[in-house]
Design brief:
By secondary structure, this protein is mainly beta. 6% of the residues lie in helices and 47% in strands.
Length: 225
């Protein structure tokens, strides 16, 4: 059952239910073993190296991947279900229109993430370094960014419901038409944030409000004398 908690101000926490899959079969894929539209289920994979390949519409279900190398891989329409990826290595991640449900990603580095028109439900990112993240038109429900460094989030026309940034550093957020409900920034590091467009309606702490006052005033068009 999902954990349903809310703070005194009524900001609901993400409802997380996924657990690590068990009773898995070891699989060591060779180059060319994974093809467009393939479904991989119930596998434990040490290294899944698909860098530079064309693999739209691949499905990964109830799997544990120690290291996923996916630099410049065509993963449009990727579907990941009830799986754990310990390390994600993708200087360029191309996964537009992808679907992620019950997924845990435990670390790694992504330079540019093309995740526009994606659906993320019950997903936890932990310890990732993320450069530019394109989530335009995406839907994020019950998502946690924990101890991540995010240089820039593009949230144009995205919808965020019960999303938190626990111990994460955010440099810039922008976007128009973003819909935000129960988004919690109180445990995020916003000290060096440059832009916060796209997260209007999120919950921040009183200490953050003081630090962000000049930025918020500038975005609202006020001059502080």
């Amino acid at each position: 059952m999902a954990r349903r908690t809310s703070s005194p101000d009524g900001t609901d926490a993400p409802r997380l239910t996924a657990t690590a899959p068990t009773d898995l079969e070891d699989w060591t894929p060779a180059p060319g073993d994974l093809l467009t539209g393939d479904r991989v289920e119930g596998k434990r994979i040490g290294v899944l190296d698909v860098a530079g390949e064309r693999l739209p519409d691949v499905e990964l279900e109830e799997c544990v991947v120690d290291t996923l190398r996916a630099d410049d891989t065509d993963l449009r329409g990727l579907r990941v279900r009830d799986s754990t990826i310990e390390t994600l290595d993708a200087p360029v991640l191309r996964a537009s229109s992808s679907s992620w449900r019950g997924v845990r990603i435990g670390g790694g580095r992504v330079g540019s993430a093309e995740l526009y028109d994606a659906e993320l439900n019950d997903v936890v990112f932990t310890g990732l370094k993320l450069g530019f993240v394109n989530l335009r038109g995406s839907t994020l429900t019950d998502v946690v960014f924990r101890d991540c460094v995010i240089d820039e989030l593009d949230l144009g026309d995205a919808r965020l419901l019960r999303v938190s940034f626990e111990g994460s550093t955010i440099r810039a957020v922008e976007g128009t038409g973003t819909r935000v409900e129960h988004v919690d920034l109180r445990r995020a590091d916003l000290d060096r944030v440059e832009r916060l467009e796209g997260l209007r309606g999120a919950t921040i702490g009183s200490d953050q409000l003081f630090a962000l006052a000049p930025l918020l005033a500038a975005q609202a068009g006020y001059r502080v004398g």
